[in-house]
Amino acid sequence: MLNFEFKNPTKILFGAGQIAKITAEIPKDAKVLVLYGGGSIKSNGIYEQVTKALADHSYITFGGIPANPEYEVLLEALALIKKEAVTFLLAVGGGSVIDGTKFLSSAALYTGDSPWDILKNGIRTEVGMPFGAVLTLPATGSEMNSGAVITRAATQEKLGMGGPGLFPIFSVLDPTVIQSIPTKQLANGITDAFTHVLEQYMTFPTQALLQDRFAESIMQTLIEVAPRIMANPKDYKAASDFMWSCTMALNGLIQKGVPTDWAVHAIGHELTAAYSIDHARTLAIIAGNHYRYNFEAKKEKLAQYAQRVWNISGEDTDALAHAAIEQTEAFFHSLGIDTKLSQYVSQYEGTAESVQERFIQRGWLGIGEHKTLSPTDVAAIIKMSY
Ligand code: NZQ
Ligand code: ZN
């Protein structure tokens, strides 16, 4: 096991009816800005629960943060924070709203020239404006981690940011919120969380036995509950396991002491930036071919995953590893998720070359667990995924 430090300060309030508890979690003298997305919270009762809980607080609201939180929209919220002297942010939404709130948490206290520099120059946020979250869509794990991904449509960029100052103070995980999530977004959530585990697991054997078991158990749980969630999002028991699995998939725990990959996300983000394909779907497009392309480096772990997660039996490492890749894509297909770029966009020629060029420009010359996956390799994986 590799050396590691682990600290996760986010308080989780899990279960039906927990939104009411935010009253006690936000300082009484805070000036609160409630941030939300396109309005789903207005029709599913979540907004009422939040405003009821804030009845004795001073709060204002900002809606309209789009999926793949857009920098220009967030600048409007930033101006409001400054104008109204806001002191506490409350994200009510999925990964996009929570990530947008993290950006604002950082930007509100940033003293440099342009807040875009936080993303462009990879500035770590040591201290941000305090914020909490009411999660409405299990998927990203943003509710219990310190990372965010922000989009800038004008330049077709989608860049990450983070730092210890960006953990939510608290996050409410109420599994009943998933009742109103469209099937497409449920499929996205399952796929995103599943791929988060893969990114932290599908590397090479390191004898970190417990982390492997943690990762495998999250994937097994997602596989088990996926058909139940897709068939009936009101199944509270399945919704609970789904929600907690998504959080545990990316709250830092399973990545401690092990190498991590994250190439699928690095490539996937480019597909969202270029074509606005849902985040999770870009991962499904890339993951299988990433594992095919890097087969020799990853086959030991692929074979272990085949046996332990998919219960595929056999002695031949190569055969098991190949079966694992097929099974993973079949799982995505079972959720209605396509795994080829051409199934999402008709004009995809040149994507590989343009992503290759961007990675070179950014100096991303070696990604993946060995830091050896070059822009040329990235282009080859994208071409395999057309
Ligand atoms: O905007 P509203 O009207 O709320 O509708 C949203 C949105 O259209 C809807 N939705 C959310 N909760 C709902 C609901 N509809 C009905 N009922 C509910 N309870 O779902 C749509 C998608 O929401 P979004 O927040 O965009 O989805 P998700 O949670 O998948 O977040 C995706 C974003 O997170 C980033 C992605 O890149 C993408 O920008 N990620 C963040 C990560 C992190 N911070 O750790 C890691 C991930 O890998 C990912 O990159
Ligand atoms: Zn993701």
TrEMBL record:
Q: Does the keyword Cell division apply?
A: no
One Pfam family matching this protein: ADH_Fe_C
Q: Which GO terms describe its cellular component?
A: cytosol
Keywords recorded for this protein, A-Z: Oxidoreductase
Domain Fe-containing alcohol dehydrogenase-like C-terminal, first and last residues per copy: 188-385
Q: Where is the Alcohol dehydrogenase iron-type/glycerol dehydrogenase GldA domain?
A: 9-175
CDD domains, sorted: BDH
Q: Which family is annotated?
A: Belongs to the iron-containing alcohol dehydrogenase family.
- Please state what the protein is called: Iron-containing alcohol dehydrogenase
